[in-house]
What we know:
Layout: H1 3-15, E1 26-33, E2 36-40, E3 49-55, E4 58-67, E5 71-76, E6 88-95, E7 97-100, E8 108-109, E9 126-129, E10 146-147, H2 152-157, E11 160-161, H3 176-186, E12 193-199, H4 203-215, E13 222-227, H5 233-252, E14 257-262, H6 264-277
Amino acid sequence: xxxxxxxxxxxxxxxxxxxxxxxxxxxxxxxxxxxxxxxxxxxxxxxxxxxxxxxxxxxxxxxxxxxxxxxxxxxxxxxxxxxxxxxxxxxxxxxxxxxxxxxxxxxxxxxxxxxxxxxxxxxxxxxxxxxxxxxxxxxxxxxxxxxxxxxxxxxxxxxxxxxxxxxxxxxxxxxxxxxxxxxxxxxxxxxxxxxxxxxxxxxxxxxxxxxxxxxxxxxxxxxxxxxxxxxxxxxxxxxxxxxxxxxxxxxxxxxxxxxxxxxxxxxxxxxxxxxxxxxxxxxxxxxxxx
Length: 290
């Protein structure tokens, strides 16, 4: 190569050079155990921000819940056993969000939006924050349309409207879940999207419910979110928020959605476990004050 060729090559390399500065806020793990980690060095961390733990086996995701003066407490959404004291943790700058889209209808997913029914991967239409400010009372439409459960005693005496909440209480094995499943099946052909969130339930029970919905032809308008009894408390804690995010996706499209949480007692147990591990001030019967 002559001098002109060398200069031309250098000029082309310099003109294509991209310079930039990236700043990452990195901390270290000072305590870890039972699915909860405490870190130092993340002074600008936000509430509900996703964190990335660097381990020997790869990266693990966590969510910041406790923002203290010198430390940050987080729950781990993955293999907590891989994280050790002294591991580095990095801020992502992203608030915890989940994938949403019409492709989730008819599928069984976990609390992070991953399919667990053995089917094809799901293509998401976007992501939605699990923590959002709810619309004000004046912005909401009044409840004027009934939601038929298919049970004449309920629809006749204590009708449920689209846009309201309803609590089903009762002792064990009294048919609470049966009422909810019958209501989901009854929405066939009404245009209502149904989301069944199983929190702390046995996987065998969830499998029976999915089979029941398939036999009734109700899975065509239903999403099943399973955070089973063997799932970490962190996934059981965020499962209802994931269901609400998917419901809000359909609401924003002008569609109606029915969400069934089965059951919220298990969610309260998971939240209590996380709060006690994070050393939050306990309230009555060791449940968090909020």
